[in-house]
Structures are given as structure tokens and as C-alpha cells.
Write a sequence for this structure.
């Protein structure tokens, strides 16, 4: 769907490249995640892919043609949800959606979306009176209005309570099941881990790794099993490598000791990100 | 251009919801109130001033205000990732400004007719209002590009008035020599004044021909070289750069 080659971008009045020569592809029907800390270049990459920033270097192809050669048909295909709340504050939620609906050839019935996102009862309330979380949910519905083939989601669950974040993640997964493609940027590791088929680690404008979360865990994970057990009243913690768990010593421990917990020592994406990039995801 | 109609309609809805129509209407009522103090030749001279102020200054302020709200609420981002083109977006602003000015013409004309029984040559007035409003809506858009807030938009507006309107005022009261004053016709407010004053005064035909041609060409130049090429930069700044 998207092919990006040696993409570079520098903001006016900036000496350094915000995006510094990155390559990646997004396949039809996959959820592709960009994981990185603030100011790593995630949102800038998204703005380039949705043609808001056009003065880039390198090549971007969308279905085999240069991205910039597309006109309005590209925007008929995509839905975008920005990180910040975007709505006409003096218009109601419904009026906001009705305005944007008129700009597309193909649209969906917003009622099921509003109901699913818990905004149906507030549809006639002015968007300016919404909480941040409600505005973010309205952003997401706005992105789904035109029945897009592809969604661009910038930090989609940022500012949402766990319940609504769950609903949004379920909707993203359903969108994928129905054949949709998603480009998602986030600094929230658990979202990326749960949603993405493939993930790219970005730091300082460079891509450090692109792979499936599973492959990254296998490649960079510790692959250990941690056992906690009681011995003479004391809590003992022992760690076994995957090779060691095949030995009699491991089985004897399980048989003879009062085991309290048994965990695989799977490394989180966040730990892998820090290992690969040397920077943390926070902030 | 399929999206032009919903854009124009949406813009009108927002002018209403954001109370900008109300503000405009209050100004119109003030004008009508002032009209009642004039009679005869004075009235004839005063009415073109209303149309001039509305199609120049009010146009700049209304366009500036709508762009300011869209900037503040980041809604421009959302419009720019829809199938709407830059041309459609900018053109919708200009069309709404023109329609607003024409609504003013209808309102003031109706008020004049019912209060004073006065009518004008509307075939002369309407083309002048359209061409003057088109230029000033573009000037309003251009001034908004440089405004970081509504206050700075007002400062830009005052600078525009100072630079482009004061010379005409000085010429009228004789501070600027007549020989120099004749060149002031190249200033947008001055040439706008000439076209709209034709409603009440005898204006030399060459000035009318020059005025219409000049403002039409100026609109094209403003759009082609000062509005559209800088629009992308404006959107970029708006997206948080």
C-alpha cells in the first residue's frame, strides 16, 4: 500500500532533520505501529503520509504511484484522527459530523459509531462543552466517517479512560478484520503491543527496528522462566534459561518446593525499545 | 469543486453559531441609525460610505475572525485531510464574504427605501461591491497568515488601514498635494471608494474602467502569488510547527 524510501524532512528554520532517511512499507490490511518517545518524529511522519507536509525528500508511493500525484481521491480513501481535539466548539457533535460528511462521496451512518463510543446521548451538546476524552472519541468517529480504507491514528488512546480506550482498541481491531489498514503512532507500549502486526521503533528521526512484536521479543527477549518459592519461611526467586528448564534440577524444584509463582521472563516492547534505541518512551 | 456548496453552507452556519452574524447585524443597525440623521445630498454622500466600510473593513475582519477560530480549534487540519482542495477552501471564504456584502446591500437598501424612500442604481452598485469584497477578503486572508492571535490580526488590520487608507484621507483634506493624490488610485481602499462612490457621484469613465480592471487583476495576483503559495506554509504552522 505505502512504500517509503529514504524519507527525510526538515522543518523550516531547523538545522537538523526531524526525519532522517527512513525506509518502511505498510501492507494492505495490517496495523503498522510507530513507537517512539515525544519529538522522535512519529507525528511528523504521519503528517507527511497524509500530505499535510509536502516538502520532504525521498520517495513515498501509495499503491505504486507517487503520493503527491494523488489529489482528492487519496482523501476519499483515508481517515485521520489527530492527537489534539479537533472540532468546531460552537457546533454540536452531530453538526460537526454532518459538516464533514458532506465533504465525502461515501459516508457511513454515524448513529452506531456514536452509540458505540458512548456519545449518542451527547450528540446535541456543543463540542466545546465536551471533556477531552469525549473530544478524542469524536475525533475517532470523524476519522471513520467516510468508510476509509486506511486509518491514521496519532496517539489514539491518549486522554481516554481505560474503558473507552478498550472500546476504541476493539474498534480498531474490527476495522482491520474487515480489511482496513491502520498506521498508528503511540508512545504507549501496551497499545502497540496489543494492536500492531508490525512495529517500527523511531528515535531521533531514525528507524532502529521494524518487525512484528513477537519477533522483536524473540530477538531481544531474555527467554527465561522465573520461579518464586518458599523455603524455611523465606521467599526465594530463581531464574532459569529456556535450556535449563529441560534439566532434572528444574523439575525437582517444581516437585519438591512450595511454588508460589511461575512466570515466563518475556521482555516487554518498552524494554526492547530502550535496549535498541537507548532512549526511554516516557514523556 | 463538488465541495464548494457544503463549504459555503458550513461557513454560513458557523458565522451564525459563532455570533459573527450577530456582530455584523449590530453594526448594520448602527449604520441604519446613523442614516436617519441624514437627508438629501448628505444622505446621498453618506450611503456609499456604509457600503465601502462593509465591503472593505468588515470583510477583512470577518474573514480574519473565521480563520482565527479555525486556527484556534485546529479544524483546518481536519478540513485539509478531507477531499477539499486548497482552491475550494479559499474560494469558499471569498464567496461567503461576497454573499455577506450583498446581504448588507439588501438590508441597507431595504432600510433606506422604507425609512427614506431612497433607491440607488443597483446595477452599478452590485458589481462594485463584488469586486471590492473579493480583493478585501483576499487581503483579510493574507493578513491572517501573519496573525498569531486575534489581537495581532487587529494590529495587522490597523497597519493596513494606516498604510493604505490614511493617504486617501490626507489627500481629501489637502495634506497631500493633488499631483501626488491622483496616483493614490492604486491603493485598494482608494480605488474601492471610487467604484462605490459612482453610486452618488459623477465619476470619470476611465476611472471606472481602470478600477474594475485593476481590482480584478489585483485579485488574481494576490491569489496566485500571495495567498495560495503561502497557504501550505500557513497550514504547516497551524499543524503545530
Amino acid at each position: 500500500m505505502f512504500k517509503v524510501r529514504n524519507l527525510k524532512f526538515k522543518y523550516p528554520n531547523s538545522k537538523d532533520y526531524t526525519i532522517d532517511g527512513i525506509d518502511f512499507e505498510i501492507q494492505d490490511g495490517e496495523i503498522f505501529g510507530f513507537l517512539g518517545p515525544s519529538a522522535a518524529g512519529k507525528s511528523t511522519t504521519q503528517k507527511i503520509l497524509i500530505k499535510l507536509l509536502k516538502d520532504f525528500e525521498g520517495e513515498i508511493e501509495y499503491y505504486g504511484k507517487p503520493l503527491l500525484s494523488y489529489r482528492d481521491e487519496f482523501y476519499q480513501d483515508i481517515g485521520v484522527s489527530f492527537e489534539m481535539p479537533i472540532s468546531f466548539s460552537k457546533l454540536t457533535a452531530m453538526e460537526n459530523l454532518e459538516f464533514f460528511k458532506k465533504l465525502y462521496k461515501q459516508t457511513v451512518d454515524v448513529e452506531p459509531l456514536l452509540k458505540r463510543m458512548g456519545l449518542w446521548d451527547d450528540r446535541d451538546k456543543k463540542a466545546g462543552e465536551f471533556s477531552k476524552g469525549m473530544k478524542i472519541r469524536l475525533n475517532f468517529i470523524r476519522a471513520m466517517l467516510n468508510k476509509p480504507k486506511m486509518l491514521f491514528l496519532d496517539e489514539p488512546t491518549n486522554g481516554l479512560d481505560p474503558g473507552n480506550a478498550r472500546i476504541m482498541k476493539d474498534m480498531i481491531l474490527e476495522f482491520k478484520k474487515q480489511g482496513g489498514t491502520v498506521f498508528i503512532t503511540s508512545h504507549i507500549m501496551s497499545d502497540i503491543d496489543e494492536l500492531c502486526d508490525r512495529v517500527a521503533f523511531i528515535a531521533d528521526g531514525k528507524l532502529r527496528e521494524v518487525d512484528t512484536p513477537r519477533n522483536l521479543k524473540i530477538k531481544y527477549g531474555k527467554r527465561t522462566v522465573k520461579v518464586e518459592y518458599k523455603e524455611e519461611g523465606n521467599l526465594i526467586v530463581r531464574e532459569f534459561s529456556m535450556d535449563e528448564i529441560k534439566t532434572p534440577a528444574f523439575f525437582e524444584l517444581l516437585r519438591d518446593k512450595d511454588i508460589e509463582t511461575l512466570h515466563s521472563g518475556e521482555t516487554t516492547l518498552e524494554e526492547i525499545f530502550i535496549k535498541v534505541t537507548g532512549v526511554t518512551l516516557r514523556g | 469543486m463538488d465541495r464548494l456548496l457544503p463549504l459555503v453552507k458550513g461557513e454560513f452556519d458557523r458565522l451564525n453559531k459563532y455570533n459573527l452574524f450577530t456582530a455584523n447585524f449590530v453594526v448594520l443597525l448602527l449604520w441604519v441609525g446613523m442614516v436617519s440623521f441624514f437627508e438629501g445630498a448628505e444622505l446621498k454622500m453618506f450611503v456609499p460610505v456604509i457600503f465601502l466600510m462593509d465591503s472593505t473593513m468588515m470583510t477583512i475582519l470577518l474573514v480574519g475572525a473565521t480563520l482565527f477560530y479555525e486556527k484556534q480549534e485546529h479544524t483546518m487540519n481536519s478540513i485539509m485531510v478531507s477531499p477539499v482542495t486548497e482552491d475550494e477552501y479559499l474560494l469558499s471564504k471569498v464567496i461567503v464574504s461576497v454573499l455577506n456584502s450583498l446581504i448588507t446591500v439588501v438590508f441597507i437598501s431595504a432600510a433606506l427605501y422604507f425609512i427614506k424612500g431612497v433607491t440607488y442604481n443597483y446595477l452599478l452598485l452590485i458589481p462594485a461591491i463584488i469586486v471590492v469584497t473579493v480583493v478585501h477578503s483576499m487581503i483579510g486572508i493574507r493578513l491572517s497568515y501573519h496573525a498569531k492571535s486575534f489581537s495581532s490580526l487587529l494590529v495587522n488590520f490597523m497597519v493596513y488601514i494606516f498604510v493604505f487608507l490614511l493617504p486617501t484621507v490626507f489627500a481629501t483634506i489637502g495634506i497631500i498635494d493633488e499631483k501626488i493624490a491622483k496616483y493614490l488610485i492604486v491603493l485598494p481602499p482608494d480605488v474601492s471608494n471610487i467604484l462605490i462612490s459612482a453610486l452618488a457621484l459623477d465619476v470619470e469613465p476611465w476611472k471606472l474602467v481602470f478600477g474594475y480592471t485593476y481590482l480584478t487583476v489585483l485579485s488574481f495576483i494576490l491569489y496566485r502569488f500571495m495567498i495560495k503559495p503561502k497557504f501550505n506554509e500557513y497550514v504547516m504552522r497551524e499543524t503545530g510547527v
